[in-house]
Specification:
Order of helices and strands: HHEEHHE
CATH class: Alpha Beta
GO molecular function: RNA binding
CATH topology: GMP Synthetase, Chain A, domain 3
Number of helices: 4
Shape: globular
Protein name: RNA-binding protein KhpA
Number of domains: 1
Main location: cytoplasm
Family: Belongs to the KhpA RNA-binding protein family.
Organism: Parolsenella catena
Radius of gyration: 15 Å
Helix content: 55-70%
CATH superfamily: K homology (KH) domain
Length: 98
């Protein structure tokens, strides 16, 4: 594949990416930095009429690290996700399934 074709393919991939995908990528990056077992982390992104729901699944031992003391970690993750959501024009909700 030549350089022009690659640039065109990259531009099309970026155009097809939903705003919720960008938010989910950020949430995944943050969560993977908190947990011990990164391979057990998975995100389920659901686009709804009223916004986006991001459900975080992780190892049972790591759920407490994602939630944090008194829920501080998950509150911070939600704040960041909602701020980015506002920037791209989407309402965002983040839940931890554990």
């Amino acid at each position: 594949m030549d350089a022009e074709t690659q640039v065109a393919a990259d531009a099309q991939d970026a155009a097809e990416e939903l705003p919720s995908d960008r938010i989910a990528d950020l949430v995944e990056l943050i969560v993977c930095g908190l947990v011990d077992d990164e391979d057990a982390v998975s995100l389920d992104v659901t686009d709804r009429e009223d916004g986006t729901l991001i459900e975080i699944e992780c190892a049972a031992d790591d759920a407490g690290k994602v939630i944090g003391r008194h829920g501080r970690q998950i509150k911070a993750i939600r704040t960041i996700a909602r701020a980015l959501g506002q920037r791209v024009g989407s309402s965002v909700d983040v839940e931890v399934l554990g």
